[in-house]
Amino acid sequence: QQKVQQSPESLTVSEGAMASLNCTFSDGTSNNFRWYRQHSAKGLEVLVSIFSDGEKEEGRFTAHLNRANLHVSLHIREPQPSDSAVYLCAVSGSNNRIFFGDGTQLVVKP
Amino acid sequence: GPKVLQIPSHQIIDMGQMVTLNCDPVSNHLYFYWYKQILGQQMEFLVNFYNGKVMEKSKLFKDQFSVERPDGSYFTLKIQPTALEDSAVYFCASRQGGAEQFFGPGTRLTVL
């Protein structure tokens, strides 16, 4: 079964400094990768979806995918305190079943 | 964007009782999902549902669980009877034909 692992478990950055989050997965046939943000007591907000190796940018959020290395990352440019949340890596394949990582708790200090 | 609604946001019940969690999916979506997230743990897939049938379920989807969507109304997850380990946040998701799943805000279930 697919294993999705995220690092770090928690990350504190200053407002304006780049935040980088990592995710590794075990199934090399996966073809669908998303980063979600989860504010407490709210649903999941999709930030960026990526389906092929390389880079995908959505506003201040950039995902990098390297399937050979089983790795996908998220970089947040100029993070703000309102970006403080849990960030979830989600990996799925042709059956659309999503496997989530444990999440990275991001805190952005003013 | 498209919104999935879940009712109620929080439910507290006694162990052994029945509970029904309701999901109002995006109106033209065809595929429906439930996920379970125990506090502090990973969100995990429970079940997906299409055309009136369970298409796939995980080992977390115990015999006490059932899903249905009668007459295109709410997509429901019923647990009967409930157990203490069922305490979690349950997320509903729906999608049309593409891969993008849209998630609801979750229902926090507390079993006492």
Describe the structure.
Chain A has strands spanning 4-7, 10-14, 19-25, 32-38, 44-50, 54-58, 61-66, 71-76, 85-92, 98-100, 104-109. Chain A has 110 residues and is mainly β. In chain A, strand 9 and strand 10 (98-100) form a beta hairpin. The radius of gyration of chain A is 13 Å and the shape is globular. The mean pLDDT of chain B is 93. In chain B, the strands form 2 sheets. In chain B, strands 2, 4, 5, 6, 9, 10 and 11 form a 7-stranded mixed β-sheet that branches. Chain B has 112 residues and is mostly beta strands. In chain B, a hairpin with a 6-residue loop joins strand 9 and strand 10 (102-103). Chain B has no helices and 11 strands. Chain B has strands at residues 5-7, 10-13, 19-24, 31-37, 43-50, 53-57, 65-68, 75-79, 88-95, 102-103, 107-111. The chains are: A mainly beta (110), B mainly beta (112).
Low-confidence stretches of chain B: none
Number of strands of chain A: 11
Helix content of chain B: under 10%
Q: Compute the CA-based radius of gyration of chain A.
A: 13 Å
Put simply, the count of helices of chain B is: 0
- Mean pLDDT over the full residue set of chain B: 93
Largest interface, by Cβ-Cβ below 8 angstroms: which chains and how many residues each?
A-B, 19 and 21 residues
* Series of H and E elements of chain B: EEEEEEEEEEE
Q: Would you summarize the structure shown here?
A:
Chain A has 110 residues and is mostly beta strands.
Provide key terms for this protein.
heterodimer, A: 110 residues, mainly beta, six-stranded mixed sheet, five-stranded antiparallel sheet, 0% helix, 58% strand, globular, B: 112 residues, seven-stranded mixed sheet, four-stranded antiparallel sheet, 11 strands, 51% strand
What's the layout of helices and strands?
The complex is a heterodimer of chains A (110) and B (112).
Chain A: E1 4-7, E2 10-14, E3 19-25, E4 32-38, E5 44-50, E6 54-58, E7 61-66, E8 71-76, E9 85-92, E10 98-100, E11 104-109
Chain B: E1 5-7, E2 10-13, E3 19-24, E4 31-37, E5 43-50, E6 53-57, E7 65-68, E8 75-79, E9 88-95, E10 102-103, E11 107-111
Parallel strand pairs in B: 2-11
Antiparallel strand pairs in B: 1-3, 3-8, 4-5, 4-9, 5-6, 7-8, 9-10, 9-11
